[in-house]
From TrEMBL:
UniProt organism field: Sphingobium ummariense RL-3
InterPro entries per the UniProt record, alphabetical: Metallo-B-lactamas (IPR001279), NDM-1-like (IPR050855), RibonucZ/Hydroxyglut_hydro (IPR036866)
Signal peptide range: 1-22
Organism lineage string: Bacteria, Pseudomonadati, Pseudomonadota, Alphaproteobacteria, Sphingomonadales
Top-level taxon in the UniProt lineage: Bacteria
Entry protein name: Metallo-beta-lactamase domain-containing protein
GO BP, sorted A to Z: antibiotic catabolic process
Keywords: Signal
CDD domains: metallo-hydrolase-like_MBL-fold (cd16280)
Domain Metallo-beta-lactamase: 108-285
């Protein structure tokens, strides 16, 4: 059975949920926002911090799979002890990444706008109304996109930095909001979820959403949150067709049961990236696809240069392999530090059976 992993460090929420417009630090020589990088096995062994033999083997595999393509993402996902460094980067310039598909987000959170003949599909909505006004709306206008043409806002999950601006954008445009039922009906620690209106709808596993000839496939991928959703959709680069994949939750849980659930979700997503032959990796966090580096490369792209987001089938497989191995490293490290028998109920899905002595 394939194990497709997705480990990323849990963000320090006080940093992750800071309003996006506050990110105004001077740009670095390397456009990755000052984030550490792991490029190879040697660096992984120095920086990963894994001690269990199985975990170290998985971490080595992660470095071999994806270090050359996603060194920032590899460091973010593959650490036994999480290290969270604040991003030191200005707001990236909005840019058309694919034909009528635009990157309009921040140094932390990428927002994707898909323009169709019948309106715009927006993926996520940043943290606050202020973010929505001063980042999303202004970036759209800078690219010649009318924010009042937003028709659907797909919310990948119920963390504030993804839904906080949704109510304002809905009021501005009349767009329909969409999120999984598990996330929309859950209690959230930060912020207040928008009230589900009559024209809003739940996202479900295997659902397709079509607007203006563009169709997105939705997959339910719990782990980051109970109802995280991920997406696949076709794109074109100067008329050449490709298939984009976007996994909806980057930060990983720490307990073994949730890690196993996350890995099952990645298995599910990888089945579809194979079936739909995805050759593009996108993310709703720039740390999830080394997005700051790729956006910077797009700004300098010349005629005939490849699109840095097109990584090919091999690249998608390597991305999956990196993420799967990092997640597996975390699972192995956690189990190795505890009594393995404690995790049998997790694997079986059944509560532990008590003996007569312990049940008294």
């Amino acid at each position: 059975m394939r194990c497709h992993s997705a480990i990323s460090a849990l963000m320090a929420l006080s940093t992750a949920l800071t309003p996006a417009i506050a990110q105004t630090a001077a740009p670095e020589a390397n456009p990755n926002g000052g984030r550490p990088e792991i490029h190879n096995v040697e660096e992984m062994r120095k920086m990963g911090g894994y001690t269990a033999p199985g975990a170290r083997a998985y971490a080595d595999m992660a470095a071999e799979a994806g270090g050359k393509l996603w060194p920032v993402t590899l460091f973010y996902r593959c650490q036994a002890v999480r290290e969270r460094n604040p991003v030191k980067a200005p707001l990236p310039k909005p840019v058309e990444v694919f034909d009528k598909v635009y990157s309009i987000g921040t140094a932390e959170n990428n927002i994707w706008a898909i323009d169709t003949k019948d309106g715009i599909i927006l993926l996520d909505a940043l943290t606050t109304e202020e973010d929505a006004k001063n980042v999303i709306v202004k970036n759209m206008q800078a690219l010649g996109l009318d924010p009042k043409r937003i028709r659907i806002i797909l919310l990948t999950h119920n963390h504030l930095d993804h839904f906080g601006g949704a109510a304002y954008l809905k009021a501005l445009s009349g767009a329909k909001l969409a999120m999984s039922e598990a996330d929309w009906t859950a209690k959230v620690k930060w912020g207040t979820l928008p009230v589900k209106a009559a024209d809003d709808f739940y996202l479900t596993d295997g659902q397709t959403i079509t607007l203006g000839g563009q169709t997105l496939t939705v997959l339910l991928t719990p782990g980051h949150t109970p109802g995280t959703v991920s997406l696949l959709f076709p794109v074109k680069d100067k008329g050449v067709p490709h298939m984009a994949s976007l996994f909806g939750g980057q930060g990983s849980p720490r307990d073994v049961a949730s890690l196993l659930e996350f890995r099952r979700s990645l298995n599910h997503f990888a089945d579809y990236t194979d079936l739909m032959q995805a050759d593009v990796v996108l993310s709703n966090h720039t740390v999830g696809d080394d997005g700051l580096v790729r956006v910077a490369a797009l700004q300098k792209r010349k005629a005939g240069d490849p699109n840095p987001y097109v990584v090919g089938r091999e690249g998608v497989v390597r991305y999956d392999g990196e993420w799967r191995a990092c997640l597996s490293a975390d699972i192995d490290e956690a189990v190795a530090k505890a009594a393995p028998g404690n995790f049998v109920p997790v694997l079986s899905g059944q509560p532990p059976k008590q003996s007569e002595q312990t049940a008294k």
